[in-house]
Amino acid sequence: MSEVYQENPNETVSSSTNLFVLDGPLNGKVYLIGTAHFSLESQREVKNLIQNVKPNRVVLELCQARSGILNLDEETIIKDAKDMNYSKLRKLIKETSIAHGLLQYLMVNLYAKVTEELGIAPGGEFRVANNEAKKLDGCSVILGDMPIKLTLNRGFNSLPWYRKLRLAWCLLTTDTNLTKEDIEELKKHDMLETLVKEFGDTFPEFKRVLIDERDMYLAHSLKQACQPIPNDFVSGGFSPACVVGVVGLGHCKGIKENWPNNTDISYLFPENRKIIIKPLKKYGKLIKFGMLFGVISVFGYQLFRLK
What is the pTM of this model? Predict the structure, then answer.
């Protein structure tokens, strides 16, 4: 597959400067549009693009577990943040992990603060894309992102135990107060990607999973979506597909880089991994449990403040 990139591929298609056109089989096209999750401008650009190109398939940077964002509104996200108490956080951590639960807690609170400030719930461009796709006969919506549970599990499991504790500590002590500059930055970028970039220098393994591996997965999903469409009324029996991909702007570069490659993503899934358990030495266990006790102590104090 070759890539065609133009900053403004066609003014009649979209006026967005964040639109990239990727070539698919049989001259099919993928219109990849980069968005910000708190931007009304991104919502307008997505709407105009879908109305102009009338795609057969629309791929969203969402997975099944995050599909609830398609029904999200401002009142719901603010209510969820206010309802996040000790028992709910404890349940979330029990179902996942300490670091996963803390990250979820941090994200809920940050989303609520930005939503209150801007009056816009995150992911509006996905809701617009979903609604516009429903208006087109035969257009299907595909959730093309890597499952969030798999993403976070791979991110946390890529860290040795002592770096997991350090990550948990960073999440516990992260300042959730947002300045005006922070708000303006989040109008242009995805919040999760912004957080990952903040931690990226300290935890490059985490950034590799949450950004780089997801870029590979999204590119794979878009390639699957742009496969030719069966058509008995044309020579050869297939018609080229027209696809619109709606992703955070931070993923566009990685998707374009992965587009020409036939990348095997099967290794991302747990059933294809070999698990090697190395026994800890006596002093290693003592150090681990000592550090763990320290983090849990701070964590318990943070939970106490939620009551």
Answer: 0.79
CB 120 within 8 A of CB 78: no
Highest mean pLDDT among 56-60, 210-214, 299-303: 56-60
Least confident of 74-88, 104-118, 194-208, 263-277: 263-277
Nearest to 151 by CA among 201, 111, 107, 109: 107
> Which single residue is written with the structure tokens 């490659």?
261
Mean of pLDDT over the chain? 78
What six digits make up the tokens of 233?
């009324």
Q: 226-258 pLDDT, tens per residue?
A: 999 999 999 999 999 999 999 998 899 999 999
DSSP the chain: --EE--SSS-TTT---TTEEEEE-GGG-EEEEEEE-TT-HHHHHHHHHHHHHH--SEEEES--GGGGGGGG--HHHHHHHHHT--HHHHHHHHHHS-HHHHHHHHHHHHHHHHHHHHHS--TTHHHHHHHHHHHTSTT-EEEE-SPPHHHHHHHHHHTS-HHHHHHHHHHHHT------HHHHHHHTTS-HHHHHHHHHHTT-HHHHIIIIIIHHHHHHHHHHHHTSPEE-TTSTTSEE--EEEEEEEHHHHHHHHHHTTS----GGGSGGG-----PPPPHHHHHHHHHHHHHHHHHHHHHHHHH-
Angstrom distance (rounded) from CA 211 to CA 67: 19
Q: Please check whether residue 7 is in contact with residue 17, taking contact to mean a CB–CB distance below 8 angstroms.
A: yes
